[in-house]
Design brief:
The complex is a heterodimer of chains A (265) and B (226). Chain A is of the alpha/beta class and 265 residues long. Chain A has a single domain, classed as Rossmann fold (3-Layer(aba) Sandwich), CATH 3.40.50.720. In chain A, 45% of the residues lie in helices and 14% in strands. Chain B is of the alpha/beta class. Helices cover 42% and strands 15% of the residues of chain B. The radius of gyration of chain B is 16 Å and the shape is globular. The termini of chain B are far apart. The chains are: A alpha/beta (265), B alpha/beta (226). At the A-B interface, helix 4, helix 5 and helix 6 of A face helix 4, helix 5 and helix 6 of B.
Chain lengths: 265, 226
C-alpha cells in the first residue's frame, strides 16, 4: 500500500446510461476492470473473451451488482469472431457506442528481440494490430451513428519503448500510429479514437512479481503516486471518462494511467 | 539488389523506391559500401540478411521498407483483412525480422540501425492508417532496441521524414493540407540525398556516440512535437 493520499472516486452513476459497450479481453485484469467501471456508470456491457468460462463470471458479477452485462466468446485475432460479437451486441442492445480493444497476448518474460520466437511475434502482432483493425472496422458503422468512440489499450512501453519487452513496445507503439490516423479519419464522422496506457495489477503482473519479488517495490519506487493501479478503480474510470461526453473534444490522445511513472511531455 | 562493393564502412539499406533509394545513393556518394535490398517482395526471415548481405559486420542498417500496399491511400473501413495484412502487419513483422536478423552483424561492427519513418507515424495521417501503424511500430522498435542493444554496442534511432519522402506528390500534398503542415520554416522540405543522407551518416559517427533511441524529425520544421 502507498502512504500517498488517494481521493475517493467520483459518482458517475448514470453517466453512460443507454450506452452500449464491448470490451475485449474482459475476462480478467484491465479489461475486467474497465467493463466493471463502464457498467457502474450505466452502460450495458458485452464481455468479449476468448474463453466464455472467463467472460461469463465477469458478466454475472456485474449483473449481480445491478449492472447490465452479457458475455460473448471472441478471439480478437479472428475477423469473423469480432464481426459476430458486434452483430450480437447490436441485435441484443440495438446499438454500439463504445468499442474497447483491450485483449492482448501476454508479453511473457523479459527477452531480447533475438530471443523471441516466431510464434510470439505472430501472436503479439495479431492481438495488437490485426485485432485493432478487426475491432475498428467492425464497430465503425455503429459508432458513427451516434457519436461513438473507440478506445485502444496500449502501454507506456508503446510510448517510451521497453528494454525488457522490445516486441511489446513495438506493437503497442504500432497501435498508437493507428489511433492517431483513425482520429483524423473518423473525426468528421463524429467518432473519437483514444488510447489508455495503463500500469495496473493484472494476472500478468501477479506472475511477474511472483517470479521477481523485488519488482513490485521497484515499480512503486519509480512511480510518483507510489502504487500500482487497480484495474477497476484506477483504469476503469479513465475509460468511463473517454467513453462519456466529458471527453467529447478529445481524440487521437493516449492517456498514460500509470501513477506518473511515464512523464513524457 | 545493388551491391557496390566499395571499400569503406558498410551499409545495408532496405526498401524499394524512396526514401531508401536516395539515401542508398547518397551514402554511396559519401564513400559507404552500400548494399541496397530494393525488392519489397522478399519474404523476410531471420536468414534474409545473411542471404543477401556480404559476410561480416555491418556498420549501418537503414530500414525504409514500406511496400506499395502501405503507401496507397484508402479509408480503413474500405480495407479487407488481406489488405490490412499486406499494408500494416507484414511490413511491421518484416521490420522486426530485419532487426533480429541484423543483430549479430551490427554487434560485430558496433553499428547503428536507423528506421526512416513517415511523419504520419507520429502525427497520424487520414487514409494512411496501415502505414502509420507499421511505421510507428518501427519507431518504437528503435527505442526498444536502443535500450536492449546498447550493451552490445549497437545504437538505434528513428528519423521522421516529411510525407513526400514516402508518398506520391498528390497524396503528400493532400496529407500536408489535412495535417496543416504548411510552409516549412527552412523554406523547403529536405532533399533526401543531400540533406537527409548526411543526418543518417552523422548518426553513425563517434561525434554522436552518446545518442541512442532518438526520435529525430527532419522535415524542415514542418512539425514540431512535444
Amino acid at each position: 500500500m502507498s502512504d500517498v493520499p488517494t481521493p475517493p472516486l467520483a459518482d458517475v452513476t448514470g453517466l453512460l446510461a443507454g450506452r452500449v459497450a464491448i470490451v475485449t479481453g474482459a475476462g480478467q485484469g484491465v479489461g475486467q476492470g474497465i467493463a466493471e467501471a463502464l457498467a457502474a456508470a450505466g452502460a450495458s456491457v458485452v464481455i468479449a473473451a476468448r474463453r466464455l468460462e472467463t467472460g461469463e463470471p465477469v458478466a454475472a458479477a456485474i449483473r449481480e451488482s445491478g449492472g447490465d452485462a452479457t458475455a460473448v466468446r471472441c478471439d480478437v485475432g479472428v475477423e469473423a469472431d469480432v464481426s459476430v460479437a458486434v452483430a450480437e451486441t447490436v441485435e441484443r442492445f440495438g446499438r454500439l457506442d463504445v468499442m474497447v480493444h483491450n485483449a492482448v497476448s501476454p508479453p511473457g518474460p523479459p527477452l531480447t528481440l533475438q530471443e523471441i520466437d516466431d510464434d510470439t511475434i505472430a501472436a503479439q502482432i495479431t492481438t495488437s494490430t490485426t485485432a485493432s483493425f478487426h475491432c475498428a472496422t467492425a464497430a465503425f458503422p455503429h459508432l458513427a451513428k451516434d457519436h461513438g468512440t473507440l478506445i485502444l489499450l496500449t502501454s507506456p512501453a508503446g510510448i517510451e519503448g521497453s528494454g525488457n519487452l522490445p516486441l511489446y513496445g513495438c506493437v503497442k507503439g504500432a497501435q498508437r500510429g493507428l489511433l492517431k490516423s483513425l482520429a483524423r479519419e473518423w473525426g468528421p464522422a463524429g467518432v473519437r479514437v483514444n488510447a489508455i496506457a495503463p500500469v495496473a495489477w493484472t494476472p500478468a503482473m501477479d506472475v511477474a512479481t511472483a517470479a521477481n519479488p523485488t519488482l513490485e517495490a521497484r515499480l512503486r519506487g519509480r512511480t510518483p503516486l507510489q502504487r500500482i493501479g487497480d484495474p477497476a478503480e484506477d483504469i476503469g474510470p479513465v475509460a468511463v471518462f473517454l467513453a462519456s461526453p466529458m471527453s467529447r473534444h478529445m481524440t487521437g490522445q493516449t492517456l498514460a494511467v500509470d501513477g506518473g511513472r511515464y512523464l513524457g511531455l | 539488389m545493388a551491391g557496390r562493393g566499395v571499400a569503406g564502412p558498410r551499409a545495408l539499406i532496405v526498401g524499394a523506391g524512396d526514401p531508401a533509394s536516395s539515401v542508398a545513393a547518397g551514402l554511396d556518394a559519401r564513400g559507404w559500401a552500400v548494399q541496397h535490398l530494393d525488392d519489397d517482395s522478399i519474404e523476410w526471415t531471420d536468414a534474409t540478411v545473411d542471404q543477401h548481405a556480404a559476410p561480416g559486420g555491418i556498420d549501418l542498417v537503414v530500414h525504409a521498407r514500406y511496400p506499395a500496399a502501405s503507401r496507397r491511400k484508402a479509408d480503413l473501413v474500405s480495407l479487407s483483412a488481406v489488405d490490412w495484412h499486406a499494408a500494416a502487419d507484414e511490413p511491421l513483422e518484416a521490420a522486426i525480422r530485419l532487426a533480429r536478423g541484423a543483430h549479430p552483424r551490427l554487434a560485430e561492427a558496433g553499428g547503428t540501425i536507423v528506421f526512416l519513418v513517415p511523419l504520419m507515424a507520429s502525427a497520424g495521417g487520414e487514409g494512411f492508417a496501415p502505414l502509420a501503424t507499421a511505421a510507428e511500430g518501427s519507431r518504437l522498435l528503435a527505442k526498444s532496441l536502443a535500450k536492449t542493444w546498447g550493451g552490445d554496442g549497437i545504437r538505434a534511432h528513428a528519423l521522421t521524414l516529411d510525407p513526400s519522402a514516402f508518398l506520391d506528390a498528390d497524396d503528400a500534398a493532400g496529407m500536408a493540407e489535412a495535417n496543416a503542415l504548411h510552409d516549412p520554416p527552412l523554406g523547403h522540405v529536405p532533399d533526401l540525398s543531400s540533406e537527409i543522407t548526411p543526418i543518417v551518416d552523422a548518426l553513425t559517427t563517434g561525434d554522436l556516440a552518446a545518442l541512442t533511441g532518438a526520435s529525430l524529425v527532419a522535415d524542415g520544421g514542418l512539425w514540431m512535437p512535444g
